[in-house]
Amino acid sequence: MMMLKENKYRKLFMKVAFILSAMLIHFSCSKTSGGSSGDDSNHIPLDINDATLPVIVIDKPIANQVFVNGDNIIIQGKVTDNSLYRGTIKIINDLNNFVLFNQPYEIHGQPAFNFDVQYKTSVAAISNYTVIVEFEDHGLNITTQTVKVKVNP
User: Fold this and answer.
1) Cα separation of 106 and 84, whole Å?
2) Contact partners, residue 7, CB within 8 Å, separation at least 6
């Protein structure tokens, strides 16, 4: 008798766990950012047949560009793909690998995305930074582009 009750609760627990897992997966992929209204109509699930890498073009800053304390590092460009998913734009201090700036994006299913962000510099000594632009598509293909810049006091 006790064994039948235990099996009944185990089956109930498994059903509840399955439903909660499915809900978690659904809601974790339905978020959008980067100016979106939260509409989930552009959501596209994982595409295992997608072998096309996103293409990133960084217009600004240019390689080895020099800034001075208080300048804005403007990061502009465009990423294209058959099914974009998400990305990040970061600025890293090369001396200590400290993340100075981190802008994440979720852009489900768009074929192109223009990015335009800025970071105000503040340094007391000459600093070398790496701008990292990384985007992923729904096939889990990831492309990363980097640009090195310098900031003088």
Assistant:
1) 8
2) none
pLDDT digits (tens, 9 = 90+) for 82-107: 989 999 999 999 999 999 999 999 98
Tokens standing for residue 140: 């889990």
Is residue 52 within 8 Å of residue 79, measured between CB atoms?
no
What does the angle CA 32 – CA 56 – CA 82 come to, to the nearest 5 degrees? 60
48 token code pair: 């295992």
The predicted-structure confidence for 49-89, as pLDDT tens digits, reads as follows: 888 999 999 999 999 999 999 999 999 999 999 989 999 99
- Total length of the chain: 153
- Both structure tokens of 148: 């090195």
Yes or no: say if 121 and 69 are a contact pair by the CB < 8 Å rule: yes
| Residues with Cβ within 8 Å of residue 152, at least 6 apart in sequence | 66, 67, 68, 69, 123, 126
Tokens encoding 137? 């598509």
Give the other-Cβ count within 10 Å of 79's Cβ: 26
Half-sphere exposure of 13 (CA within 13 A, CB side): 6
How far apart are the C-alpha atoms of 98 and 14, rounded to whole Å?
Answer: 43
Decide: pTM greater than 0.85. no
